[in-house]
Amino acid sequence: MLRILSLKFGRVYRCGKFLFIVALFVILLMNTHNLLASFQRNELTDRRFIGLNKCPACFGTSWCRKFMNSQVTFEMWGRLRFLDFFNVKNVYFAQYGEPREGTRRVVLKRLGSNQELAEIDQKICKRATGRPRCDLIQGMYKTEFARLNGDVRLLTPEVVEGWSDLVHCPSQRLLDRVVRRYAETKDSGSFLLKNLKDTERMQLLMTLAFNPEPLVLQSFPSDEGWPFAKYLGACGRMVAVNYVGEELWSFYNAPWEKRVDLAKQLMDIAEQLTNNDFDFALYLLDVSFDNFAVGPRDGKVIVVDAENIIVADKRLIKQNKPENYDVWYESRYEECDKEACLSFSKDILCSRVTVDHNYYAICQNLLSRFATWRGTTGGLLHDPPADLVKDGRLTALLDECTRPQKQYGRFQAAKELQEYLTELTQLSNTNR
């Protein structure tokens, strides 16, 4: 009976697969004219397509000349608009060309799904008129984004606190850094708002409120050693960043030595974002295999999605001394039936000097046996060699880093795990 059912299911699956291919072929055949037109035109020069017509309710204009001069072009599949149905995150791969530098691959982001972008328009209109629909450009000039005019000297925490994760608990030092490093103005380098044009100021504030990822990349640039993708520029609602490489998930079944090296780099990232010379703690609130990528040449791990990051100013915390500010904070492991979920309190992350959140996030969602992603379990360090299984140290450190059994156990486990992974990496390099 079971065999008969399996045979029937197999026939249904093959039949469904065949019908899907036939349907796709018919769609392609019916849209042959549109397909040919897609390959002939460059939609990245279309003001409406890239959202330039929505400015200043947009993310910037620094790369508009490059877009309009056709220096930025979609790679082949990106030109097929019917595939946008599957591209929920609105992330595209493109080629960018400079006469003296040749072409290179870049990533274009709309910084949200179509629904999220439509919600931005509605929120702007509600802020301006109280209604969900309005003339968007006129509406921008009636919002708080425009009321911060050139007479306001500084962007202050009282104005923007809570707008997004980046400024959930902003300090003046952080905001000065954001304004000073704002890349969508020709006169960057000053922390004074009056040095920005009205449109630039509105674009900065809108980005800060709705998706601060570009501002994270600008404020903590890769050129200074921060583990983020390099910000290139924006035109309308299309932002360009450098292409890093394949996503971390592609290395899930890579050779053990490679996975150990990647795991070590991930723990290094957790340490750098937690403890650095600038006394800014950057806490990753969304940690999954899709949010990291690996360079094809140097094998370097980079954070490629920086929208959900809280920045806590440790100097300000030490200065203000909120309740229990000097008590070490341990993130609590909780059972979860979803992928890549984390338990945290934003307010606590903003009020403690010593926090283990980044170690917890990396260990739980990426490295340990508790990590689940796309139907798999076991994490990046799954199936270690037999001698490491017998030794038991790696498993013990990963477990303690994820579900600590001792008070402050995760802090110690994270430190020892980082050292142990370094030893394993050096050992594998020696044996090559």
Automatic annotation (TrEMBL):
GO terms for cellular component: extracellular region. Residues 206-404 form the FAM69 protein-kinase domain. The keyword Secreted applies. Its main location: secreted. Keywords: Secreted, Signal. It is found in: Secreted. The keyword tRNA-binding does not apply. It comes from the Eukaryota. Belongs to the DIPK family. This is Deleted in autism protein 1 homolog. The gene is LOC107722302.
